[in-house]
Specification:
By secondary structure, this protein is an alpha/beta fold. Helix 1 crosses helix 3 and helix 4 runs parallel beside helix 5. The protein has one domain: Glycerol-3-phosphate (1)-acyltransferase (3-Layer(aba) Sandwich), CATH 3.40.1130. The longest helix is centred in the last third of the chain and has 26 residues. It has a seven-stranded mixed beta sheet, with helices on both faces. Helices cover about 40% and strands about 15% of the residues.
Length: about 220
Amino acid sequence: MKIFKFFIAGILGAWLIRLLASTVRIYDDPKGFNKKAKTRHVIYTFWHCMMLIPAYVCRDSNIQVLISQHSDGEYIAQVIKRLGYGAIRGSTTRGGRRAVKAMIDKVREGYSVAITPDGPRGPRFVVQPGSIYLSQKTGLPIVPAAIGLSRYWKLPSWDEFRIPKPFSRALIMYGDPIYIPPDLTGEEMEHYRLLIERIMKEMTEKADILVLGKKRCLR
């Protein structure tokens, strides 16, 4: 019964995302992801509350996404699989070591990966060290991303999840690649964690401002 519930939720969730996001005018940063070209092998990071628009824009790319092993993570996993992603189960709190190994294996097979560094349970807008550790082990750079929404609903969840309103605007911005050295002291690890966190916060603020001034769709 539970498997059937997850199956139906995956189909409905993917359909609803496609339907809603198709009404949103989405602006892409020219430096960013282009699914018509070869996907750059990188580690994409974006805040947990912003995942809906990236899930739509980068659909059918087979990017590997880290999804928590919590029960609500299964719903997300079923949805993103139907949007054309790979789902790797685990997080910083449950199944972390196994998940990192699985992501490293996928990177070696030539896939890019995506992580919400403040997930799965927060704190909101606080980067956890998982993406930095993965970058160390794989040599892939971290590319921070930010999503600005002109109008949205905010859910009463820990991350204040944002759902864009129909016929609103969204802007996706991509930062410069951040290369993480393979060997870091604890102090150096904290430096990179704070650096990525600061960049992502600044990009989010900028994206929120810029999207309000957009007049035409760039893609």
